[in-house]
Design brief:
By secondary structure, this protein is of the alpha+beta class. The chain is globular and about 55 Å long.
Length: 317
């Protein structure tokens, strides 16, 4: 972790084995301008690591009988164009919907942040898909933004409230939040940075940073340890739901990787990375070894998946 040490954007690292903390450390700075060091309580923007929480929300509502994974998405979001008629919730969970990437159809001249509801509006004008739904795989932030909207309609709660009341609070993840500017705050917040022209520059937010379903959650390694523990038993989801989430549903564009519901599956590992402006994160779980490595960073480079696997190798008994 040498490159994360000192007056540079930092990182927090968690290694759990058999429920015990092997590594629980932070490095560098959470806020360079205010000279605030990172700690295990520092909350980083998870980016696409957030997708596993969106998937869990859908599975909770399926357990409640509020929805079914094979529901047609247009039953919940009828303003989508008819080309979306075949798309199901399961297609959204597994990136097999073929939906157009909302970032590809945003107005580059519009500097306003988009929200999940704006993603729906953008897709309402797209009477096309990348492929026939269910016949291919393409990683889709659009799909997970729509899943957050479905959570709201099925639960009759705001998405951020549902996460807090059904996942974060029950698991004791007291400082984890789906961040909404002007509505919520991030305690002990890490700010994102990019290395530009030989110096670290704050690049904390982009026009897509306010979309919650695909990447808007902030959390710490302390809170994610509680999340990891809940994935071994039924304190949150039934074992049948967890099994669905962790089952390789589809091949991906990487021949070594399959995708479940908010999780990538590679050999013995369940993992997901998260990349957004100013943040790079990863969680890598080895369920058979009962071991997990989490690396959260507030910088644009490098992507820490390889680092997490090296840490896991060093931590293996």
């Amino acid at each position: 972790m040498h490159d994360y040490t000192g007056n540079v954007p930092g990182a927090s690292v968690l290694v759990l084995r058999d429920g015990a903390l092997l590594v629980h450390r932070s490095y560098g700075m959470a806020d360079m301008e205010a000279h605030v060091a990172a700690t295990p309580l520092t909350n980083y923007r998870l980016a696409s690591v957030s997708k596993q929480f969106t998937a869990a929300s859908i599975l909770l509502l399926a357990e409640d009988g509020r929805l079914h994974l094979d529901d047609k998405v247009r039953d919940w979001l009828p303003t989508l164009p008819h080309v979306a008629d075949p798309i199901t919730i399961r297609h959204l969970l597994t990136h097999t919907s073929g939906l157009i990437d909302y970032e590809d159809v945003m107005d580059p001249a519009d500097a306003r942040q988009v929200h999940d509801a704006d993603v729906l509006k953008l897709l309402e004008s797209q009477d096309r898909t990348y492929f026939v739904p269910g016949t291919g795989y393409r990683y889709s932030n659009s799909g997970y933004a729509l899943l957050a909207l479905i959570v709201e309609r099925a639960s009759k709660q705001r998405y951020a409230d549902f996460l807090r009341e059904r996942i974060f609070r029950p698991l004791g993840m007291a400082n984890t939040v789906a961040y909404e500017a002007g509505i919520s705050e991030v305690a002990r917040r890490a700010y994102g940075y990019s290395f530009e022209n030989g110096a670290w520059m704050r690049t904390d937010q982009s026009t897509t940073s306010a979309v919650l379903g695909d990447g808007g959650i902030y959390s710490s390694i302390d809170d994610l340890a509680r999340w990891d523990a809940a994935l071994y038993d039924e304190r949150l989801l039934k074992s049948t739901s967890l099994q669905q989430a962790f089952t390789p549903f589809t091949a991906t564009d990487d021949p070594d990787v399959r995708y479940g519901y908010g999780w990538r599956i590679t050999g013995e590992t369940l993992w997901h990375s998260g990349e957004t402006i100013g943040f790079r994160n990863v969680i890598v779980r080895y369920p058979k070894r009962h071991m997990t490595v989490i690396v959260l960073t507030n910088r644009d480079d490098p992507e820490p998946y390889v680092l997490a696997k090296k840490i896991a190798e060093a931590a293996s008994p």
